[in-house]
Specification:
By secondary structure, this protein is α+β, with helices and mostly antiparallel strands. It has three domains: 192 residues, Orthogonal Bundle (Arp2/3 complex 21 kDa subunit ARPC3); 61 residues, Signal transduction histidine kinase, dimerisation/phosphotransfer (DHp) domain (Helix Hairpins), CATH 1.10.287.130; 142 residues, 2-Layer Sandwich (Heat Shock Protein 90), CATH 3.30.565. Helix content is 66%, strand content 13%. The protein contains twelve helices and nine strands. The termini are far apart. The structure holds adenosine-5'-diphosphate (ADP) and magnesium ion.
């Protein structure tokens, strides 16, 4: 039983080593470092096998050294490196019969594996595991026979059984694990790629959404100018706002092209009253169209810190939703106040309202109840801007009655 115990101990050590190699492998991003790590694993495995080898008879030692040598050559290539190390290690134990057996067999194997390596890597997963096991059984068998020829034949049936079975089992377990690890890595790389593609497509959809708001405004003003002859002063004002909107659209495009994620480029003091007034100006045509009365309850002097153009974008999306929720008219209230160091902004509409489920899904990309009219990106953008400015949003809504968005920011102090 001594031999079996030793070989099983070899087996568990190799598996423990593999486990830790896998843990380190997880952190490697570069393919080359993973390959290098794999080579190191096999070298340490060969070393470990020697340390825990068992003497069967004079000059003959048993261990699982052939397993890392075979798998290393097949999976990592470099068969001469692994054969060389295996022989070198064996020489440390003396130049006895066992050494010459090892020397001869591993040199032959090195040539064989060098030749097999490209073919082996083209095989299917199961075939690779099978071929590895088969080669291990054959090597173990030849090793045993050689011992019989050069030294004395091994008579224990147990020695034969365990020296054929345990290496085969070890090879099977390790090559199966290596295949699984490889497979997981490939899947993960594929997922990462899909994620990137997804982000890019979100981004482009978001850009068109962001651009649509200013374009709608400009269109509204142009229509107003077409329908009626306004006094020169009024015309000037309309054109001024339209140009401002186009500038903002340009800025939005630049922002999105420069930064993949909403990063804040221009971080400065934001005068809440000024910015919200501008937002309501922008949405004025739309409110008129829907027959919505806008009520402002502003507290002056509220200042927060962030990017004003992003702030506007967040509230345009938010208030636009409120207006869209009141197609047959209603009232939109924007209320700002301060408690301690917290700035509160409340946006309330008397529109169609939302169910619990709708509230939960709010901000989910592409979640819209507006069919072709909606993109389902507005609230996603709004929430990400509020989050980036360290704000919090709370939503209350009742179907048929209306919705309230309560946003909190930290007040900016000098
Ligand atoms: P979109 O406006 O393009 O549909 P949003 O992300 O802006 O996308 O909004 C997602 C969904 O949330 C809307 O389709 C709507 O069902 C719901 N919603 C958002 N705000 C309100 C609101 N004030 N009143 C009622 N429903 C709203
Ligand atoms: Mg919207």
């Amino acid at each position: 039983m001594e031999i079996t115990k030793h070989l099983l101990m070899n087996l568990s050590l190799l598996l423990v080593l593999l486990f830790f190699t896998q843990l380190i492998m997880e952190r490697q991003v570069k393919e080359e470092s993973r390959q290098r790590l794999q080579i190191v694993y096999f070298i340490i495995s060969i070393f470990t096998c020697y340390i825990f080898s068992v003497q069967v008879q004079d000059g003959v030692r048993f261990d699982l050294r052939q397993v890392p040598m075979i798998l290393g050559s097949l999976y990592a290539g470099h068969s001469f490196l692994f054969a060389g190390i295996t022989i070198l290690m064996r020489s440390l134990l003396g130049f006895d019969d066992g050494f010459w057996i090892s020397f001869f067999i591993f040199i032959v194997l090195a040539f064989l594996f060098k030749w097999m390596h490209p073919w082996f890597n083209r095989l299917a997963i199961n075939q690779r595991v099978g071929v590895s096991i088969l080669l291990t059984v054959m090597t173990s068998f030849v090793l045993m026979e050689m011992v019989g020829v050069i030294s004395q034949p091994i008579r224990h049936p147990e020695a034969w059984l365990s020296f054929i079975l345990i290496p085969a089992l070890t090879t099977g377990l390790i090559s199966y694990s290596i295949e699984t690890i490889r497979q997981t890595l490939i899947i993960r790389q594929r997922l990462a790629k899909a994620d990137k593609i997804e982000a890019v497509s979100h981004l482009s959809a978001a850009i068109s959404h962001e651009i649509r708001n200013p374009l709608t405004t400009v269109k509204g003003f142009l229509q107003l100018l077409k329908e009626q002859d306004y006094p020169a002063e009024k015309k000037k004002e309309f054109i001024h706002i339209a140009v401002q909107e186009l500038n903002r659209a340009e800025e939005v495009i630049n922002d999105y092209l420069t930064f993949a994620r909403p990063a804040f480029e221009k971080v400065e003091e934001i005068d809440i009253e000024k910015e919200l007034n501008q937002v309501l100006n922008v949405l004025h045509p739309m409110a008129n169209l829907n027959g919505v009365a806008v009520r402002k309850k502003f507290t002056s002097g509220l200042v927060i810190f962030g990017d004003p153009s992003k702030f506007q974008q967040a509230f345009i999306n938010l208030i636009k939703n409120g207006l869209e929720a009141m197609p047959d008219g209603g009232e939109l209230t924007v209320h700002t106040f301060r408690t301690g160091s917290v700035v509160h902004i409340l946006v309330r509409d008397t529109g169609i309202g939302m169910t619990e489920e709708q509230i939960v899904r709010l901000g989910e990309p592409y979640y819209t109840t507006k069919g072709q009219q909606g993109t389902g990106l507005g609230m996603m953008v709004t929430f990400s801007i509020i989050r980036a400015m360290k704000g919090k949003a709370e939503i209350k809504s009742e179907v048929g009655k209306g919705s309230t968005f309560h946003i909190r920011f930290n007040h900016f102090e000098h």
